[in-house]
Design a protein that fits this description.
Length: 380
């Protein structure tokens, strides 16, 4: 019996080890920034792009009918036919290394009131078109930029009628629109992933800045999407608040923040099941305050190559799946603002995370659950 027990234990240990390694390999680094390509750029340059140390990229759908991310949240109702050229580009792109690619979606220009039925019919329709592009083009889903580039659509006091309509009533309407948005996505792509630059957790973060506090309608919108998308979809809180972090303890604190933010949600069970944790890393973070980006004098930057390598490894180890890697002064596709030291930092940081067994808390819990099931089978 002891020999059998030992053999069983070793088998379980080997299984857990392989599961842990496989799980780590599922953690993905997604490139995004001012160098964002459109579908035609990707089709023409994918072989060269895949030489970079990423697992995917955020892509714009730009066609003669319009640039989706800058006009999707408006009365302009797009059709699938409008974006057939973008789908054709994606279908004719030979993706290999870039397995997890996302379509950019903004809340822009945000000139539709939450109570505007006709306007919301157009927005939900545009969401459906976006999901269709993802489904037909083999993309994982949407990269939803929550930042208000024009109207402050997620700020209660900025809404028409906020002086007479209560926050509770506005929140109920926002939640309804979020549900309609989620249902539109799920109709076209039931397994869609929607990664937000930040989501409900922005309202639970301490200390609250004036900027963070201004997103008082966002939790209701996230609740609605969580309700609307169904069990096959994934909502990622992308935690833009992680931008300048590098320590594993800092990422773990933010991981806990997302799960604690369930207290704000009105659909807590669904939130638990459908919301996961991601991180944003900003390579040239605070470049404006520092007077520029200095790839040849890295001590002037927030991230030196060594610190950036540490940040990439810790973020990838700590995420549930995704880390989005942002930059403004750098162009990964032309090489602008890059040096071999910075390229190596990202490459080595990514490789170290894949080789690591230090998984995020959510993954540890999953492995423990599988371990107990494996143990039960051995006992039988």
């Amino acid at each position: 019996m002891r020999h059998k027990g030992c053999a069983a234990f070793l088998a379980i240990a080997a299984t857990l080890g392989s599961m842990s390694a496989a799980r780590a390999a599922e953690h993905k680094l997604i490139e995004w920034g001012f160098d964002q390509p459109n579908t035609m750029d990707v089709r023409k340059n994918i072989a060269k792009m895949e030489e970079r140390p990423f697992d995917g990229v955020v892509i714009g759908a730009h066609v003669p009918a319009g640039q989706l991310e800058w006009t999707d949240w408006s009365h302009k109702a797009y059709t699938k036919a409008d974006f057939q050229p973008a789908v054709d580009d994606l279908k004719n792109t030979a993706f290999h290394k870039f397995t997890d690619n996302f379509l950019r979606f903004n809340a822009t220009p945000a000139d539709v009131n939450w109570f505007d039925e006709a306007g919301w019919k157009a927005i939900a329709g545009n969401a459906a078109v976006a999901a269709w592009i993802c489904q037909e083009g083999g993309l994982k889903g949407l990269m939803f930029d929550t930042e208000p580039y024009k109207a402050k659509i997620f700020t209660y006091k900025a809404q028409k009628g906020s002086d007479t309509i209560s926050l509770e009533k506005y929140s109920a309407e926002v939640r309804l629109r979020g549900k309609q948005f989620g249902q539109a996505l799920a109709r076209e792509k039931p397994d869609i992933t929607v990664m937000f630059t930040f989501a409900t957790s922005v309202q639970h973060y301490k200390p609250q800045t004036t900027y963070m506090a201004s997103f008082d309608l966002l939790p209701a919108f996230i609740d609605g999407i969580v309700e609307g998308v169904g069990d096959g979809a994934h909502i990622v809180d992308g935690l833009e608040m992680a931008y300048g972090r590098s320590k594993r303890s800092e990422f773990d604190e933010l991981h806990t923040l997302v799960h604690d933010a369930r207290k704000i949600s009105k659909v807590q069970d669904m939130y638990d099941n459908r919301v996961t944790v991601g991180y944003g890393l900003w390579m040239d973070c605070t470049w404006q305050e520092r007077g520029g980006w200095f790839p040849d004098d890295p001590e002037k930057n927030m991230f030196t190559p060594e610190k950036l390598k540490t940040a990439v490894t810790n973020a990838l180890e700590g995420t549930d799946k995704y880390v989005w890697f942002y930059s403004e002064s750098v162009d990964w596709w032309t090489g602008k603002g890059l040096t071999p030291a910075y390229i190596k930092a990202v490459t080595d940081g990514h490789a170290a995370a894949i080789a690591s067994a230090h998984l995020a808390p959510r993954h540890k819990k999953l492995l423990a659950h599988r371990h107990s099931k494996q143990k039960a089978r051995v006992a039988r």
